[in-house]
Amino acid sequence: MNILIILCGLFGFFGAVALILFGATFPKGVRKKYLFLRILQGQRLTLFILAIISIIGSYFSNTLIRINSEETIEQIDHRTHRTDQTTQQNKLLLQKNIELLENELQQKNEQIASLLGMLSHYQTHEPSVKAQQYANLIPDDAGPYALALKAIAQKRFDDADNLLDEATKQKEAELAKIYIARGNLKYYQGKYSEALQWSKKALSLFPDDPVILNNVGVYSIHTGKYWEAEPLLKQALEIREKQLNPDHQEIANSLNNLAVLYYSQSKYEQAETLYLRAIEIDKKAFGEDHTNVATSLNNLANLYHDQGKYDQAEQIFLRAIEIREKTLGAEHPKLAKNLNNLANLYRNQGKYDQAEQLYLRAIEIDKKALGQDHPQLANHLNNLAVLYESQGKDEQAEPLFLRAIEIDEKTLGKDHPRLATNLNNLAELYRTQGKNEQAEPLYLRAIEIDEKALGKDHPDLARDLNNLAALYYAQSKYEQAESLIKRSIEINEKALPDDHPNLAKVYENYAIFLQDTGRGAEAREYKAKAQTIRRKRGE
Fold first, then answer.
1. Do 432 and 486 fall within a single domain?
2. How many folded domains does the chain comprise?
3. What is the rounded distance in angstroms from the CA atom of residue 539 to the CA atom of residue 527?
């Protein structure tokens, strides 16, 4: 097209020159002097034809230019449209990736695990591998909300906090979404009280959302507010049962979470029924050998362990290990968790050699799969240390406790409840060794962490207070000891059901304290309370 325009333009140019020459008259002197002018003057017909060509060439040249311009405009419009389409597709893709990332970050809150009467904060909650994969799909020029989710998945928690502040200022996302994201952020940091506060804000905006109800229920469990957790988890389950197929995975998750609550309250029959139903759903959804089934079996085995049904617990633990090895391989960190749980069972049965072998295998897997500084490794080192302590191998136990604390401080921070548990365990070792000056600051630090992370009504805080009270009692600091024991009893009475075994223990401890301090009548009162609980439980 461009070549045609040039040719037509040239025809027009030469035709114009001919037209000028055609109409020109030249003096004779000039014509004689310049031969080509004489020739041109004598060729008027030729010049006339060239003039006509000039007009035609100009016409076609203008026409072709106009056509070419129109085509160029169309091409620009097409490219613009195509660019708009690409931009729109990119926006939709980004939104889809954001939704996937939201759901995957959420998923860790969907199913919590139990561990020997202790809740899942003894484990470490981390964004899943899938969450990290989805995070990698979020471009660096995305908005602050998307980048905040990316930072959470990549465990850049300080960055995530700042980005959520920016997202709030820009009103980039709904407030409920930002509140949920903040809840997830604090959850992964082990700051359960703050996670609960943010989730409650989200719930105030959407009071019938089963996901938010579940979150608030789960965080209430973590902070020891069992009385608040139950109605929320029940409501989430009821909504899901109305909205979803009876065998839907979300129903299994809700059943599991409610079961964990009942388990933590020693409502074993109710917990068992829910666990069994959740396992059936998992089997239908995933098959007999799926890793989700292994998780559900693990929870049921922990329930039987806590009830003293050791044979049933062992068989289910072994089945969970079999599934993990078959589906994930012999060196997967999830397998290490199951090995650790079976080791805990053997330790409590006094099968120390078998327990030690399993702990060592779990630790070896952790080191290979997760590295030398992972919180799961710290947890398993701590448990091996507890085993050595129970065998009187204090020299082997102490360096393991110290290494576990070092890892947790490095990876989880100085205010994580898992760290408080390890500090408490080391303090107990020092107390039994008579190293009271070393034990006391560890107890005090554990109390400070648990109050901040779990709240003032959590049974773990009651444990810390009770242990520090034992230290003060050994030092004849009776007033300080009694104050701590009373506070421990108050927390347990508020958080636990009337027939919980932990209540029986603290009543018995207080009865001994009262008896030793010459207050026999009060001692008999608390001893009777403990006996009532024991009879109720058939002990």
1. yes
2. 4
3. 15
Q: Rounded to whole angstroms, what are the CA distances from 20 to 6, 62, 184, 405?
A: 21, 21, 86, 101
Q: Write phi, then psi, for 333 (nearest 5 degrees).
A: -65, -25
My answer on whether 445 and 504 are in the same domain is no
Q: What is the pLDDT of residues 149-165, one digit of tens each?
A: 999 989 899 999 999 99
At position 525, the amino acid (one-letter code) is E
- Same domain assignment for residues 510 and 533: yes
Burial 205-220 (b: 16+ CB within 10 A, else e): eeeebbbbbbbbbbbb
C-alpha 67/C-alpha 161 separation (Å) is 57
How many residues make up the chain in this entry? 539
Phi and psi at residue 208, to the nearest 5°: -115, 15
Please choose, from the candidates 408, 410, 381, 409, the residue with its C-alpha nearest in 3D space to the C-alpha of residue 397: 381
In which element (H, E) is residue 263 found? Answer: helix 249-264
Contact criterion met (CB below 8 Å) for 459 and 475: no
Is the domain of 18 the same as that of 91?
Answer: yes
DSSP state of 447: H
Q: Which domain holds residue 526?
A: 498-539
pTM of the model: 0.73
Q: For residue range 397-437, list pLDDT tens digits in order.
A: 999 999 999 999 998 889 888 899 999 999 999 999 999 99
**Does residue 73 belong to any structural domain of this protein?**
yes
Round to whole Å and give the CA distance between 367 and 360: 11
Residue 424: CATH number of its domain: 1.25.40.10
Q: 48: Cβ–Cβ under 8 A, 6 or more apart, which residues?
A: 22
Residue 474 lies in a domain: yes
Residue 88 CB neighbours (<10 A): 10
- Residue 241 belongs to some domain of the structure: no
Answer yes or no: are the C-beta atoms of 131 and 105 closer than 8 Å: yes
